[in-house]
Amino acid sequence: MLLCFFAQSSLLISVGCSSDDVESGDEDVEESTDDDDSEEEVIEEAPVYLIGGEEADAFVEAIYTPAVANEATDLAFHPERDELWVVNRDFEVDGTCSVSNPFSERCENLGGYVTIIFEPGTDNQNEIILEDGNSTHFMRRPPTLAMGVADTFATCGEAATGNFEDEPVNFIGPTLWSSNLNIFAKDPGVDENGAPLNGSHLDMLHGTPWCMGIAHQQGNTYWAFNGDIGAIDRYDFAADHGPGYHDHSDGRIYRFAPGEFSRVENVPSHMVYNHDDDHLYIADTGSSRVRKLDATSGTFVSGIFPLYEELADSRTYSNVDIQTVVDDDVLDLPSGLVIYDDVLYVGDHATGEIIAFDLDGEELHRFDTGLGADALTGLEIGPNGQLWFTNMLTGSVYHIVVE
Q1: Less CB within 10 Å around the terminal CB: N or C of the chain?
Q2: Is the dihedral of CA 185, 84, 280, 353 positive or negative?
Q3: Would you place residue 45 in the very low, low, confident or very high pLDDT band (cuts 50, 70, 90)?
């Protein structure tokens, strides 16, 4: 498979000379050796990143544009199939989805959906759009998605609740889904008592209102950006309850550093878990920074209150090790985030630029996507080593080609 990422290399040039033995009377002339007068010159090639480099041009290629514009907020490649999953939501409608008006335009507008692009970027590319039967609750206003293991993925919702908006309880959080196309967005039927099951979701826990980002760690464990209280929440769904069921009693929620982070309305704050250093890298959009959280740090303080469902465990941690990777004098509204080959790529929602940094925050290269302000959202690395991204103003999907 051809990769559009070139490793930094060196060109070694050796310059030397030698001569044969020459007779001059009885006098011997020693043979000169290469070591005597050889020279070495090392020429460093300029590094090339997924967004180009000083000596490598890059350009944007549109892969997909929907027939009807929408907010494409994030994207992820299926780990085993040649499929690109894009999470979408319609442009927000003003008003309140209330108990007294459950069929209002606002209520109908809240559910998110996914666009699945098969064989993306090839002549055989085709797409389908799928929406769960109860997306209003289980995929409300999604700003993000993350692929997991065993044919699963997770989303969360930028909303106060998954129920009617005039209800007082903030009841929403990440949802675990199957990426099996025989399960996702299919009617799950009825339970053993003949009662209808509720949507195709595999599991859902309800402790993160105004979620702005999600990242997979391992198994059924995900991290969620809690925009309501400025915390990072770690969810363990444990064993899922199966499509449409509702037993959450084995779930666990661990909350880290409440008040340390801040959201910006309608700007996703994406995150990525780096297994090499056990840190969660976070687009802290409200502070215009990229920060990293040490997943092994923290001091237990208490449980999580309030909670509105029975769980196996809930904990809040303080004294969490959080460091700034990229400061607010470099970025305006960091949103998309991905790590590839020890390079951190950050999409700035305010400018439409993608900036490459090393993992210490040193800027390496900057690329203008041409999208302008308020469009650039999710970033993803494709199986071909290219950088892909979404447009929140049109619903379009692009990748970057490096020449």
Answers
A1: N
A2: negative
A3: confident
Q: Hey, how many other C-beta atoms are within 10 angstroms of the C-beta on 184?
A: 22
Tens of pLDDT, residue by residue over 189-231, are: 999 999 999 999 999 999 999 999 999 999 999 999 999 999 9
The answer to whether residue 49 sits within a structural domain is no
Picking from 231, 204, 197, the residue whose alpha carbon sits closest to that of residue 140 is: 204
Cα separation of 382 and 387, whole Å? 6
Q: Which residues pair with 197 in a beta bridge?
A: none
Structure tokens at 1: 């498979």
pLDDT digits 0-9 by tens, 148-175? 999 999 999 999 999 999 999 999 999 9
pTM metric for this prediction: 0.90
What is the per-residue burial (b if ≥16 Cβ within 10 Å, else e) of 265-301? ebbbbbbbbbeeeebbbbbbbbbbbbbbbebeebeee
Tell me if 272 sits within 8 A of 223, measured CB to CB: no
Domain count, the chain: 1
Alpha carbons 19 and 60: distance in angstroms, whole number = 56
Residue 315 in tokens:
């904990």
Supply angle C-alpha 395, 223, 380, rounded to 5: 35
CATH number at residue 107: 2.120.10.30
Let me know: does 365 contact 6? Beta carbons within 8 Å.
no
* Domain range enclosing 387: 56-402
CA neighbor of 87 nearest in space, from 336, 355, 354, 384: 336
Say if 155 falls within a structural domain: yes
- Which residues are 39's β-sheet partners? 15
One-letter amino acid at 9 equals S
The residues, ordered by sequence, that sit 6+ positions from 230 with a Cβ below 8 Å of its Cβ are 258, 259, 260, 261, 262, 263, 286
